[in-house]
Automatic annotation (TrEMBL):
Signal peptide annotation: none
Protein name per UniProt: TetR/AcrR family transcriptional regulator
Domain HTH tetR-type positions: 13-73
SUPFAM superfamilies referenced in this protein's UniProt entry, alphabetically: Homeodomain-like (SSF46689)
Entry keyword set: DNA-binding
Coiled coil regions in record: none
A Pfam family reported for this protein in Swiss-Prot or TrEMBL: TetR_N
DNA-binding region: 36-55
Length: 204
């Protein structure tokens, strides 16, 4: 049976989610300077006071948005990996995994995170808050890639090749920030997937 408190709690969760999604959109579309609490609140359709009730400072809002992006992206990556496993085998499977990893770095989430990273590089307080999140994101991304490729991460060669794939994906994401780099990116993904498949001895 529903309790009298549940509707209020649901509204609170919905407000929080709207604020986090609005923060990501602002960062990705208009950059760090424009992603203020006031602008985010207006975009989310809530008052500034309501926004500050959930997130007392801008840093609280930005950090929570990154956490939200992280959790959403990891759930998305898991679903993509399961879908890839069902439809592709052999080098086609490896290509699909690499492609999914690369495309995740061309999403609005990556563009929003890039705004935060750039600002954090010159802001020691923000950097201290962001580094643990990035470390956790990196570890989880690596583990997801290992699982999707089906390799033994205790093998140093496999470990470094997976990490190189993630580094490649991040670099291609950066190349796509200012211009549409999709045609060149596809060629690189195809070549790297073939090279990776052979280097990891994944068979036919």
């Amino acid at each position: 049976m529903a309790t009298p408190h549940e509707p209020k709690q649901d509204r609170s969760r919905a407000t929080r989610q709207r604020l986090l999604e609005a923060t990501i959109d602002c960062l990705a579309e208009t950059g760090w300077a424009a992603a203020t609490v006031s602008v985010v609140a207006e975009r989310a359709g809530v008052s500034r006071g309501a926004a500050q009730h959930h997130f007392p400072t801008r840093e609280d809002l930005i950090t929570a948005a990154l956490e939200y992006m992280f959790e959403f992206r990891m759930d998305q990556a898991k679903a993509e990996s399961e879908a890839v496993a069902e439809v592709a085998q052999g080098v086609g499977h490896t290509r699909a995994v690499v492609s999914a990893l690369v495309e995740s770095y061309t999403s609005p989430f990556f563009k929003a995170a890039l705004q935060v990273w750039t600002h954090a590089a010159a802001d020691p307080v923000l950097r201290e808050r962001i580094l643990p999140l990035e470390a956790r994101f990196g570890r989880t991304s690596h583990r997801r890639a290992v699982e999707a490729l089906g390799v033994d991460d205790s093998d140093p060669v496999a470990h470094h090749l997976v990490q190189a794939t993630l580094d490649l994906a991040r670099g291609l994401g950066l190349a796509d920030v200012l211009t549409d780099d999709s045609s060149r990116r596809k060629l690189i993904v195809d070549q790297w997937a073939t090279t990776l498949h052979s280097a990891l001895n994944l068979g036919d």
